[in-house]
Amino acid sequence: MNTTLDYLTQLLEIPSPTGFTTGVTNYLIEVLTGLGYQPYRTAKGNVVVTVQGKDDEKHRVVTAHVDTLGAIVRAVKGDGRLKMDKIGGFPWNMIEGENCLVHRAKTGETISGTILIHQTSTHVYRDAGTAERTQDNMEVRLDAKVTNAQETRDLGIEVGDFISFDPRTIITPDGFVKSRFLDDKVSASILLHLLAVYQKKAVTLPQTTHFMFSVFEEVGHGANSSISDKVVEYLAVDMGAMGDDQQTDEYTTSICVKDASGPYHYEFRQHLVALCQAQDIPYKLDIYPYYGSDASAAMNAGAEIKHALLGAGIESSHSYERTHQDSIDATERLVDAYLKSELVDVK
């Protein structure tokens, strides 16, 4: 677990809003190469490691995504502040008050700021607490002496510059992990740790397996391409959604029955359940009503595969998230058990 958390904290430190992921994929390439693998980037930018298995006729894909929510400069306002456009799906209030970095394309450097509603001061605006948070009134207050648009542009800031949010990662003594972007860097850290263990212990998996770290999941098409015709099973390791009417919690692994794209493959799901029961892995079955995954994106793109989705339980998804080491551990154990199991049997 310490190794998994080490990978997690390192991944969380690297800004990677969808579309601005070269830094995090460079990290993956470096780590995976250091472990003795031969990772490669697809044309889209996904990072893939293929691990040869005993059976090279029928393959598996397992994915986690390293792209995150973020924003992009929509306009430079007359007072020098920045108007934003969202990257990924979240309400504006989820990022209000968040510190951020503006990544200047012209210089390759960053400048810090804070995301606020325009009517922030309660001493000035009667509607500071009641105004709807929209693209029109949410803005970045830069940590720079700017009072007009030209002064901001003179800093090298322009429309199209990416904006990343401060993850604010904290691991408590009781095992809670609080941070933005646990969706889905928890899963990526799990895959990295398993790959490290497999290499160190010379583990041979039963099926040739493609470990894919995708970079466009938050916008809906992360790992829906570069899938070998030999692939018959596709497991997305993402996050379990928590809330009213949800069974998912922060202490077990969550197996998705259905999301917004429809039901996942029944026999595959039952295979995962059987592994949990056989190995005493705590789990929950759940429906994620407003959700899509790399696996569902692959299905929508026409992949001829069995697909499944599981992940650690994440509280307050797409906001300041939290999970517990127990859930991370249960998820890692299930992914490991699956990768070492035989193919899903459909009778």
Q: Biggest β-sheet: count, sense, barrel?
A: 9 strands, mixed
Note the beta-strand portion.
25-35%
Q: Regions with pLDDT < 50 over 5+ consecutive residues? A: none
How many helices? 7
Q: Name the assembly state.
A: single chain
What shape does the CA trace take? globular
Terminal CA distance reads: 37 Å
Taken in chain order, the helices and strands follow as HHEEEEEEEEHEEEHEEEEHEHEEH
pLDDT averaged over residues: 97
Cα-atom Rg, whole angstroms?
Answer: 21 Å
Helix content: 10-25%
**Extended strand count:** 18
How would you sum up this structure, described in words?
By secondary structure, the protein is of the alpha+beta class. It is 24% helix and 30% strand. Strands 1, 2, 3, 12, 13, 14, 15, 16 and 17 form a 9-stranded mixed β-sheet that branches.
Quick rundown:
The protein is of the alpha+beta class and 347 residues long. Helices cover 24% and strands 30% of the residues. A hairpin with a 6-residue loop joins strand 6 and strand 7 (110-117).
Mind sketching the topology for me?
Layout: H1 2-12, H2 22-34, E1 40-41, E2 47-51, E3 55-65, E4 70-76, E5 82-87, E6 99-103, E7 110-117, E8 138-142, H3 149-154, E9 162-165, E10 170-171, E11 176-179, H4 182-200, E12 207-214, E13 231-241, E14 253-259, E15 262-263, H5 266-278, E16 283-287, H6 294-300, E17 306-314, E18 321-324, H7 325-339
